Please model this.
Amino acid sequence: MCRIFEHSMSSYHLRLVVLVIVLLFFNGCAPRKILHLEDHPLPAHPVKKIETNEFFLAKGDDIIGRSAFLRLEADDTLPDIARHFSLGIHEISAANPGIDLWVPAAGERILLPMSFILPDAPRKGIVINLAAMRLFQFKEQATSLTVSTYPVGIGSEERPTPRGLMYVSRKTVRPTWHVPASIAEDHLQRGDPLPPKVPPGPENPLGDYALYLNEPTYLIHGTNKSASIGLNATNGCIRLYPEDVKKLYEDTPVNTPVSIINQPYLVGLRNGVIHLEAHGRVGDSDSAERNAFYAKLRGLEKKLARRFDWKRIEEVLSEQRGIPVPISGKKGTAKETEIRHPDKLYGKPETAKLKMDAWYVLAAETSDKLNALRTAAIINHQGPPIPARVLTKGNGYRVIAGPFQDVHAAENALKRLKINLEIEGIVIEPPNRR
Model:
């Protein structure tokens, strides 16, 4: 379980590396199937902004937000695009099979899956759907209902996030991470001893805001590892982007109810059209659950006296792209939106300038440019960040981490690369010291 302050940095990165490999070499090579992006014509006038977090829920509807298309530019990564538009890594990757996670092609047109079917749960307080890796916050305002939604990181398969009805028991700004004995021992065995507690700051894995649940040892909090949002990356807690958890913290009073559920298959109504949204399950697949869902759909079809598109239903359930798809009425009735590429992506790691008097770490040497770029991108997205770049050397490429102000900072980065990413690097001292 994710005990309070029990966030193993090394275990997180191992899970991230495994997932990255899966996304790159399986999903990254997967052919596109339904919902081909080329089937959606380019709108004449791309919009500059689009709603990402807060929505008004129309009466009788179960769907919020609207998806959009975006043209990628040079040096984009899907994690950077995901964070800018408040999406999780798995969300944006599942919606765009065949797109390289870390080195997508410039000019590629991708789908931003920013339309969501609300979970089948009471619309009160906070509802977290583990299958969608998304949090929904419901707020009543007079006769209307607004919904705020954020992507989340959730527990790993070994330490899953618990389900059930809970509530926010207390809140803390700039929490201290008290390292439990089990985590301290685990890090010690890896050659990475931890202090008894970590004060607020860039090294604290809880981030700047924490909402503690009444269920002992679990909480909703920020992170210093933004690339973990939308992954099974925690020891059971719910993790948000720093900018998202700040808004959630400010909008959530103590005693707010929290319902944690797991609903991979969602059905919702918008403008009189039934939509279906499917996600990969958290945990082992369950044929009984799918059969029960089929029975639910057939009962709904009979109740509404509408004919559902069962071929499309099979496609949606098979591909699990997490996108609301119409299964009644005409296809393609939704108005597509194209959004302009932002001038600057929020939270994107910046490449530090090279300095002749600084220390560096040689992280990798390869003849494959794309592999070098992927490695540098993964290093850049560590938490806390480790700056990295690709330099050419003859016909090959070198991945260089740095600059670092002294040998101690370089050695610390070298240690983190080995423990977190299993990268065997070499410290490079400044030329004037050789």
Observations:
- DSSP finds nine helices and 24 strands in the chain.
- The two ends are 49 Å apart (CA to CA).
- Confidence is low (pLDDT under 50) at residues 1-40.
